[in-house]
Amino acid sequence: MVEFQKFTLENGLRVIIHEDSSTPMAAVNILYNVGARDESPEKTGFAHLFEHLMFSGSENVQDFDSYIQLAGGDCNAFTNNDVTNYYDLVPAENVETVLWLEADRMASLNINERSLEVQRKVVLEEFNETCLNIPYGDAWHRIAKEAFEIHPYRWPTIGLVPQHIAEAKLEDVSQFYQKYYCPNNAILVIAGNVKTEKILDDIKKYFGRISSYPLSERKLPEEPKQKTMKRQVYKTDVPLDAIYMAFHIEGRSHPDFYATDLISDILGSGESSRLYKTVKKKHHYFNNIDAYITGNMDPGLLIIEGKVDETEDVDKAEQAIWKELEELKENGISEKELQKYKNKAISALIFNECNILNRAMNLAFFEGVGDANMINSEMDAYKKVNTSDIQEMAKKILCQENCSVIIYQRENKKPIQK
Question: Nearest CA to 159 among 6, 22, 5, 43?
Answer without folding.
Answer: 43
